[in-house]
Amino acid sequence: MKRILLTLSPEQAADKQLITKAVAREVHLPSQSLYGWHIVKRSIDARQRQPKVLLTIDACLSQEETLIPPYDKPVYQDVSAPGTPEVNIIGMGPAGLFAALTLIEHGIRPVIYERGKEVSLRKMDIARLNRNEGLSPESNYCFGEGGAGTFSDGKLFSRSSKRGNMQRVMELFHYFGADDTVLYEAHAHIGSDRLPSIIRRMRETILQHGGQVHFDTCVTALDLSRPTILAIGHSAHDTYRLLDKSGIRMEPKGLAMGVRVEHPQTLIDQIMYHGSPLRAQGLLPAASYSLVTQVHNRFGQRGVYSFCMCPGGHIVPAATEAQSIIVNGMSASHRNSPYANSGIVVELHPEDLREGCSAIEWLAFQEQLEHLAWLHGADVAGAPLSAIAPAQRLDDFVAGRDSHDLPKCSYLPGCIPSRLDQWLPPVIGDSLRQGFADFGRKYPGFLTHDAVILGVESRSSSAIRIPRNPETMAHPDSPNLYPAGEGAGYAGGITSSALDGIRVAQALSTRLLNS
Ligand SMILES: Cc1cc2nc3c(=O)[nH]c(=O)nc-3n(C[C@H](O)[C@H](O)[C@H](O)COP(=O)(O)OP(=O)(O)OC[C@H]3O[C@@H](n4cnc5c(N)ncnc54)[C@H](O)[C@@H]3O)c2cc1C
Question: In whole angstroms, what is the distance from residue 410 CA to residue 338 CA?
Fold first, then answer.
């Protein structure tokens, strides 16, 4: 096997025969003597006028070498026998699911409690929400089988080795049904249409090996007589309040809040691919962007950045409680909607509220903003039970003026014109205005009348950190409590939450199997 790097034009990269020729040239063999090749990593470099495709390829030089990148398949034990050690898991998002699978690998039975429904029933509640027929507080974009990851964009980005073996998470997604690209794409993406079946296969594996899953079961009291992995995500504010009442120590942490912006995808393609015709010819995917800037204003220096960019995607209603509007984004595997959206958020710190602010006060600050969005959206629209979001054209927001109408938008429940520039807390509003102006300077065309912003994007990360011992992974005050995933403040996104679930389950297995 020989690893080589190729830089190709999008036309060349779309042609397997041309790749084979280029690989053969690199390994100094005639094409017919090459046993095959597979892509280890693929990315697009669109910084230059002519976008390039960068490929890392393993060339197979002998018959024994396999074409599919080899990885160790997981070996799940039978954990159904009486007397098998048991661990409770609260929450069945990526952290809870991957923790459960890891426990089974170690011969430990997971018993999962999930407040929401199984994925096929959850789909119906989400469809109702999008038809504006009301929110089901226990079954929505955040709660239910697979957690917030199920109907998400399914971007599996982080390859950082700092938090552990991200590649292993990709391999497990592949094992449960994701296509080969998750093994090599630099910006792998599963899509909200494919995630549910992957999640279902994970659940079936857990059940087949003797694990237990209890849907429609919201944990409302903590029993820590048995080890418990707490993988509740960052949206279960009622559960944080339960922890607080139960005396579990938590800390407020920095988070980022703002709005979701949406442009026509063709405009983003034009900006990011410098007008290249290759996109229209289908040789380049829907373009994405990653924007970041630092602004200075009366609140000091603030980072303003794009978050969870969804090319060819939809803006979705992601609230879990009534009288609150929260927006987020997702896309299907083909990324073929005519819209491009992303969260544009501002860094915030608990000290912005007050020095020494508590975790629960910090949550309340987040909730106030979400309620404000409801007051200016659904409530003002005269449909208080709906998910109608307040919205403003992007150029009107930056200039501080009314939007008399709104452009077409992917957000199905609907929007109503609103002066977000006037009601967003100034630390967010001022910073966003400066941030958007800067993005407009750097990317001419971005700051346009054809773009719209919707409020509010408030759940980009957890507002809370639940402390834990970095070695044992247990809460320092509660040796049977194992905080995990995004809601515990140790992850952000599907892959890192999954990985955190694996790490916590490994630490817990070591303890249980050695005691
Ligand atoms: C619309 C949307 C799009 C997203 N797109 C992406 C993306 O493209 N890429 C990416 O990496 N990330 C994305 N994210 C974020 C990602 O989904 C989360 O980071 C990830 O799911 C966090 O995993 P987790 O397991 O820690 O928590 P969660 O996935 O939030 O799961 C927590 C689970 O715990 C359950 N729960 C909570 N409280 C209780 C209780 N008291 N009792 C029982 N069960 C409880 C919840 O119902 C939920 O199922 C997106 C999120 C949303 C909402």
Answer: 8
For the chain, where do the domains classified as CATH 3.50.50.60 start and end? 86-250+466-514
- Please, are residues 53 and 44 in contact by the beta-carbon 8 Å criterion? yes
pLDDT digits (tens, 9 = 90+) for 28-85: 988 888 888 888 788 888 888 888 999 998 888 877 666 556 789 999 999 999 999 9
For residue 27, how far is its CA from the centre of ligand 1 (angstroms)?
45
Which residue, among 72, 137, 441, 507, has the nearest Cα to 271 in the 3D structure?
Answer: 441
Instruction: Find tokens 């939450």 and name the residue.
Output: 497
Q: Where in the chain is the domain with CATH 3.30.70.2700?
A: 2-60
Per-residue pLDDT tens over the stretch 141-151 = 999 999 997 88
For the CA of 500, the closest atom of ligand 1 is 26
| Angle, alpha carbons 328-329-334 (nearest 5°) | 170
Closest by Cα among 246, 202, 247 to 112: 202
Domain 2-60: which CATH class?
Answer: alpha beta
CB contact at 8 A, 112 and 96: yes
Angle at the Cα of 269 from the Cα atoms of 267 and 275, rounded to 5 degrees:
90
Pocket of ligand 1 (CB under 6 A): 90-96, 113-116, 141-144, 147-149, 152-155, 218-219, 231-233, 236, 239, 308, 316, 318, 328, 330, 485-487, 491-495, 497
Say how many C-beta atoms besides its own lie within 10 A of residue 133's C-beta.
14
User: Which CA distances in Å does 167 have to 69, 100, 159, 185?
Assistant: 12, 19, 7, 11
* Cβ count near 207 (within 10 Å): 13
Is residue 79 within 8 Å of residue 484, measured between CB atoms? no
| CB neighbourhood size of 27 (10 A) | 15
pTM: 0.92
CB-neighbour burial class of residue 448 (10 A; exposed 0-12, middle 13-18, buried 19+): middle
- Going by CA atoms, what residue is nearest to atom 15 of ligand 1? 493
Rounded CA gap, 198 and 188, in Å? 15
CATH class, range 86-250+466-514:
alpha beta
